[in-house]
């Protein structure tokens, strides 16, 4: 598969007073292929948001490479990226559509903004483009003159999507796009996203807490814990047979109505270790992991292959 | 057109706002057409008619130089409103823009703006205004500058707080993703969101600006006689209250009061009209 | 089941006065919870599930009014009690935990003190003894290092920890009924599992009745004995979780299940619910508020809703059930 996004040992460390560093993203490597939907899961504080902001260039990495179809993006500064020719190639759909829409902009203004800035359209051409995008996302044209507070959750989600696809990005990052929506509206939006992906030939990075949605939408899944990727592989395999203890805990925690379908429950107690100046020789999951051998505290497990396209970072997987 | 309909709705919901707008319209008419509408020449003295109480010929009476007070009050509207508008706009440009930059960028911008505001606030504001006018010269333009400067901390502080809150909002990130450079984000995305509260701020300070100008003129700084200005007229009229000629100070004073009252009420109404969240 | 239920809601109707009309948010809602039982009120936004809880607790928005019904609890009708009498019950016999635990706690008061406050107010603890009892509660909700955590402020704790504090506050006086309004929305799935287990365990230990309000059907099925499905202010079906999933009888319940991601194998198999909620301000609302978009509508559907027993503790309010 043609590689679209290549992330190579990407790291972001924030100084937190004195010489201490918070390792938000710690030497993460993965790829996203053309037309693929890759899911990114992990609990709060695992570094998902930071990773997303590194990829969409709102934040500068401490080290590591970000290549989009061969173009190096890591070397460009985040502050000036807005004016860069590559800005339109990566876009994002935000979690809280209400929060991500400017309360003073109408839906039309919101959708038009990136087109105006990045595609340099104006006047009637711009208007036509905005209308076409509204049609594409199923937003009735008469709603274009409304403000966010006059729109329902589903309508706001559509505006957010229309805005994100307006400049025909190659990679679309979706940060919990349906978290705030009712289940019925969620179905419609998810199907819309799938349809748009096919129509416009985009790749998706789908960040979500809702593992059921990830299972339905994603080809591959990355599991993150405390700044590191601990497991990655095809979605079906990860859900059917999670190998890393954290992934197992995650999958087994998904509420399941049918007791027969529940895989062995693995309950996680305690809190994650501190991401500040973590010991590079100790596995990040050590202490919370039901296993805990001396090797876990003396040698950091690295991602290794356990099957075609399947990798786990654990000594015992 | 949507705006007009919403404006009508706000006015119908809130009769007090309607009253404020009516008063404002009256003031505007007086400011624009005062000299034409005035029955007498406001600068024309007539010693024979000095100190006459209100009558059919002179609605507000005459002052110590025989000038018709009604005409003077009417014509003074233009000067007072101009001073107030100019001060408020200058204060907004200086204060709100600095404040938004300070709130959005933080760091050194925030520190510099903060220290500037602190320095201004260290002085009793009216005394500072006096000092500025005295230093720059006894001209109307300097009243405007002085008023703008003493209002700077207030505007900067409000703008900074509002910008700070919005800095981490999703739509700001979205604006960056849409190709907006930092300047454009601040001016095109953050600033429009703080306009409603800024409008209230501006309207309230209109009232203070008028009072400030009147106060400065009262003590002889800024507007010089024989120009018609409410503050100066109150100052001149104050001398005659004891001897019983109450109308010389009262009518300009009432005009002042009405104008300040109007602007205070206007602020709330304007905010309701401009803020799209109030629209249903 | 001849024992007196912990809570029996009958015929509850609630209206909201708004600028654009009166909204009939709840209409003739009735259900009961037995001692030691856990039920879930499940529905989409606008279904009235939270309003039901607020009405029972007496904390409805001032614009809301209970227009009919009773909520029998401990021998008296909660809806008929005065504010002072209700205040006596709340916190002691009847407790509630909310979504978004960090905002539900007082941000400027240490968490240990917040638990102690409830004990002093309702359990007759004295000021000097209350802090020790508070630490005991922290141990009960399995907060590690409770002596130190009691001195923390809410902003210093994670979402999961704050929710445990809320549970500690709610259960400090061993209430007979706990209402949990979306207690795990916003929490990670691993934390959610732990919190739900904890509530379940404490409830069983104390013989406490629990009402969970949630939009997550699978969560309801896994952790609750029975599920009550609500739509537009009506109860449309009530059944044990497994029965509901294996065979929903109300068309809306079936559609809700078909829209739930966990229950299908592919995205294509997911189906959205056609139509939309009726405008609850209308005066001419049909007897069945789902009939407007139901493909199984028959002529009978204009008649007042029936309550049919279709299985063991399985009720459906439909003239043409599946």
How would you characterize this protein structure?
- The complex is a heterotrimer of chains A (317), B (280) and C (322).
- Chain A has 317 residues and is of the alpha/beta class.
- Chain A has a single domain (3-312), classed as P-loop containing nucleotide triphosphate hydrolases (Rossmann fold, 3-Layer(aba) Sandwich), CATH 3.40.50.
- Helix content of chain A is 30%, strand content 23%.
- Chain A has an eight-stranded mixed beta sheet with strand order 6-7-8-3-9-10-12-11, with helices on both faces. Chain A has a four-stranded antiparallel beta sheet with strand order 2-1-4-5, covered by helices on one side.
- Chain B has 280 residues and is mainly alpha-helical.
- Chain B has a single domain (2-42, 59-168, 194-278), classed as MetI-like (MetI-like fold).
- In chain B, α9 (230-241) packs antiparallel against α10 (247-274).
- With 322 residues, chain C is α/β, with parallel strands linked by helices.
- Chain C starts with 6 loop residues before the first strand and ends in a 6-residue tail after the last strand.
- The longest helix of chain C has 18 residues, at 189-206.
- Chain C has helices spanning 49-57, 83-89, 101-104, 111-122, 130-140, 146-149, 159-171, 189-206, 217-223, 241-246, 251-258, and strands at residues 7-18, 21-33, 38-42, 64-73, 76-77, 94-97, 177-181, 209-214, 226-231, 234-240, 308-311, 314-316.
- Chain C contains eleven helices and twelve strands.
- Chains in contact: A-B, A-C.
């Amino acid at each position: 598969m043609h590689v679209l996004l290549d992330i190579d040992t990407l790291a972001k460390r924030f100084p937190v007073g004195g010489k201490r560093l918070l390792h938000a993203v710690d030497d993460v490597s993965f790829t996203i292929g053309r037309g693929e939907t890759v899911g990114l899961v992990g609990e709060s504080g695992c570094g998902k948001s930071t990773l997303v902001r590194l990829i969409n260039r709102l934040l500068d990495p401490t080290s590591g490479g970000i290549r989009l179809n061969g173009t190096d993006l890591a070397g460009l500064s985040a502050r000036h990226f807005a004016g860069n020719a590559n800005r339109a190639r990566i876009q994002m759909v935000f979690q809280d559509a209400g929060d991500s829409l400017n309360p003073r902009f109408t839906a039309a203004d919101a959708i038009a903004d990136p087109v105006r800035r990045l595609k340099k359209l104006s006047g009637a051409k711009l208007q036509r483009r905005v209308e076409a995008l509204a049609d594409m996302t199923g937003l009735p044209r008469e709603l274009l003159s409304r403000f966010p507070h006059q729109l329902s959750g589903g309508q706001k989600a559509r505006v957010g999507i229309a805005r994100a696809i307006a400049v025909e990005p190659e990679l679309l990052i979706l940060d919990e796009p349906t978290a705030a929506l009712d289940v019925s509206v969620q179905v419609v939006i998810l199907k819309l996203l799938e349809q748009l992906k096919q129509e416009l030939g985009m790749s998706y990075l789908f960040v979500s807490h809702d593992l059921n949605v990830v299972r339905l939408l994603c080809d591959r899944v990355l599991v993150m814990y405390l700044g590191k990727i601990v497991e990655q592989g095809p979605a079906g395999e990860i859900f059917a047979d999670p190998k890393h203890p954290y992934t197992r805990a995650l999958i087994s925690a998904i509420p399941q109505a049918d007791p027969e379908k529940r895989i062995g429950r693995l309950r996680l107690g305690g809190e994650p270790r501190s991401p500040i100046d973590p010991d590079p020789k100790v596995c990040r999951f050590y202490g919370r992991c039901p296993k805990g051998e001396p090797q876990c505290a003396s040698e950091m497990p690295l991602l290794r292959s356990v099957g075609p396209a399947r990798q786990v970072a654990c000594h015992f997987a | 057109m949507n705006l007009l309909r919403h404006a009508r709705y706000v006015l119908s919901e809130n009769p007090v706002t309607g009253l404020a707008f009516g008063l404002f319209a009256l003031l505007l008419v007086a400011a624009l057409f005062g000299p034409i509408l005035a029955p007498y020449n406001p600068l024309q003295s007539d010693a024979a008619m000095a100190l006459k109480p209100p009558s059919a010929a002179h609605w507000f009476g005459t002052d110590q130089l025989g000038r018709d007070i009604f005409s003077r009050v009417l014509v003074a509207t233009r000067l007072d409103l101009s001073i107030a508008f100019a001060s408020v706009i200058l204060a907004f440009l200086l204060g709100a823009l600095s404040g938004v930059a300070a709130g959005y960028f933080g760091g050194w911008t925030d520190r510099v703006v903060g220290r500037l505001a602190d320095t201004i606030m260290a002085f009793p504001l009216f005394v500072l205004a006096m000092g500025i006018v005295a230093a720059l010269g006894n001209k109307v333009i300097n009243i405007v500058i002085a008023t703008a400067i003493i209002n700077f901390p207030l505007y900067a502080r409000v703008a900074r707080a509002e910008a700070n809150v919005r800095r981490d909002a999703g739509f700001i990130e979205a604006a960056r993703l849409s190709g907006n450079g930092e300047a454009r984000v601040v001016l095109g995305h953050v600033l429009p969101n703080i306009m409603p509260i800024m409008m209230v701020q501006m309207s309230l300070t209109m009232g203070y600006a008028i009072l400030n100008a009147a106060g400065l003129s009262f003590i002889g700084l800024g507007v010089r006689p024989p120009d018609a200005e409410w503050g100066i007229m109150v100052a001149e009229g104050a001398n005659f209250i004891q001897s019983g000629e109450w109308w010389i100070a009262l009518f300009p004073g009432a005009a002042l009061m009405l104008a300040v009252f109007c602007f205070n009420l206007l602020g709330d109404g304007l905010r309701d009209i401009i803020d799209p969240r109030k629209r249903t | 089941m001849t024992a007196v239920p912990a809570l029996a809601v009958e015929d509850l109707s609630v209206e909201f006065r708004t600028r654009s009309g009166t909204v009939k948010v709840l209409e003739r809602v009735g259900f009961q919870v037995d001692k030691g039982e856990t039920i879930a009120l499940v529905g989409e936004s606008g279904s009235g599930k939270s309003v039901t809880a607020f009405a029972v607790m007496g904390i409805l928005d001032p614009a809301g009014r209970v227009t009919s019904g009773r909520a029998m609890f401990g021998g008296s009708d909660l809806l008929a009690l005065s504010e002072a009498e209700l205040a006596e019950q709340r916190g002691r016999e009847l407790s509630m935990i909310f979504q978004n635990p960090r905002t539900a706690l007082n941000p400027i008061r240490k968490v240990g003190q917040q638990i102690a406050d409830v004990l002093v107010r309702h359990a007759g603890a004295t000021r000097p003894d209350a802090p020790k009892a508070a630490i005991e509660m922290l141990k009960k909700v399995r907060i590690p290092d409770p002596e130190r955590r009691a001195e923390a402020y809410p902003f210093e704790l994670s979402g999961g920890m704050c929710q445990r504090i809320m549970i500690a506050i709610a259960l400090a006086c061993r209430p007979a009924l706990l209402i949990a309004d979306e207690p795990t929305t916003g929490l990670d799935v691993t934390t959610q599992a732990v919190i739900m287990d904890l509530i379940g365990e404490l409830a069983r230990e104390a013989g406490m009745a629990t009402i969970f309000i949630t939009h997550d059907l699978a969560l309801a099925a896994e952790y609750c004995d029975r599920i009550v499905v609500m739509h537009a202010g009506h109860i449309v079906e009530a059944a044990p979780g497994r029965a509901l999933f294996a065979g929903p009888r109300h068309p809306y319940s079936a559609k809700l299940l078909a829209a739930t991601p966990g229950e299908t194998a592919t995205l294509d198999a997911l189906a959205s619910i056609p139509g939309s909620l009726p405008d609850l301000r209308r005066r001419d609302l049909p007897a069945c508020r789902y009939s407007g978009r139901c493909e199984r509508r028959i002529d009978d559907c204009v008649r007042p809703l029936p309550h049919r027993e279709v299985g063991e503790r399985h009720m459906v309010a439909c003239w043409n059930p599946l």
